[in-house]
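Try this one yourself first.
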């Protein structure tokens, strides 16, 4: 079996916090990094890397909206030539003259709330011929009658960040930023937000416009099977007609239920949210779990030749790195094991 393991945010994103790795026992990961043949490319987001792997071209944006739409809606063949945007619920907080953004990982929004919020928003935007569809509690969709001249930033790029420099831009940006401001004013006094705050929950006080585009005509990737719980991965796999399975608890379970034909992709994004919010405590704990559940058993499977080739891809803002190993790679006695901070 050839196995491709992709992990965004495997390395902590802040170079100035090298002590983040202190007292972390990760022998299997260190061995994989040391013994693997290493190549390095430019920084990526998870979405842009996935689009490139699945041969999806960038439009004004990476077209996340029309791709996840087909997963959430079941089928969107009649909408193939329509331009769609994701307009997702978020929480904005003012801190030191910055506007910081939080996404659904910290919002705990229900589908019932999503429908109520979007009903109110639709009353506001319906005069412009627009309708917001809450197909999932935290994935809202907007169909545009015409393709806007608009470039946006991925939601994953904005999470935990100051959004002042991440707002939509382009010839139509003033129209869309004005609409966002109107939605913010509507949400400010919304009764659902008052109820949420009374329960000690964060208000849904804005939306993030992103991922616009038209559905690509063809999606394909060099995998026989994909293992992931990431929505965008599952959506791409569906469009590419590739078998996609929920991510198992550990590598041993995957190896038990997998055959040896073709290359298989495991997309493991457990670290991404913790890194985005700079949650060092939970990021470290999750990394230890990944060592136990994935790196150690995969290294063992490589030694036993259950895996003929293991490729680890680490997606990061500053670089994207690949580490390629075969059973013979483990004989590279001259390849010294380095501390993890040396890879940051």
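Now uncover the answer:
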């Amino acid at each position: 079996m050839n196995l491709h393991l992709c992990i965004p945010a495997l390395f902590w994103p802040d170079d100035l916090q090298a002590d983040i790795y202190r007292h972390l026992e990760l022998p299997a990961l260190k061995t994989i990094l040391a013994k693997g043949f290493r190549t390095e490319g430019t920084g990526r987001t998870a979405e842009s890397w996935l689009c490139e792997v699945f041969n999806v071209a960038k439009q004004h944006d990476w077209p996340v909206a029309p791709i996840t739409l087909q997963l959430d809606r079941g089928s969107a063949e009649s909408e193939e030539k329509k331009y769609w945007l994701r307009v997702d619920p978020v929480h904005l907080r003012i801190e030191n003259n910055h506007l910081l953004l939080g996404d659904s990982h910290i919002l705990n929004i229900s589908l019932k709330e999503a429908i109520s919020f979007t009903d109110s928003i639709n009353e506001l935007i319906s005069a412009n011929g627009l309708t917001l569809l809450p197909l999932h509690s935290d994935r809202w969709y907007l169909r545009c009658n015409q393709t806007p001249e608009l470039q946006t930033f991925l939601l994953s790029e904005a999470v935990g960040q100051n959004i002042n420099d991440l707002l939509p831009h382009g010839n139509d940006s003033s129209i869309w930023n004005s609409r966002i401001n109107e939605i913010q004013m509507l949400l400010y006094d919304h009764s659902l937000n008052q109820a949420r705050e009374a329960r000690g929950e964060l208000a849904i006080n804005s939306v993030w416009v992103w991922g616009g585009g038209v559905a690509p005509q063809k999606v394909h990737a060099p995998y026989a099977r994909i293992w992931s719980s990431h929505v965008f991965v599952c959506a791409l796999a569906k469009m590419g007609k590739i078998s996609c399975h929920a991510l198992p608890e550990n590598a041993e379970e995957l190896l038990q239920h997998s055959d040896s034909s073709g290359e298989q992709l495991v997309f493991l994004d457990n670290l991404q949210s913790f890194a985005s919010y700079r949650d060092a405590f939970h990021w470290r704990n999750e990394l230890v779990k990944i060592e136990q559940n994935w790196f150690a058993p995969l290294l063992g499977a490589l030694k036993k030749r259950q895996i003929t080739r293991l490729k680890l891809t680490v997606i990061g803002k500053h670089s994207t790195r690949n580490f390629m190993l075969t059973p013979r790679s483990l004989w590279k006695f001259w390849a010294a094991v380095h501390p993890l901070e040396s890879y940051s």
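Discussion: Residues 43 and 301 are 30 Å apart (CA to CA). The mean pLDDT is 93.
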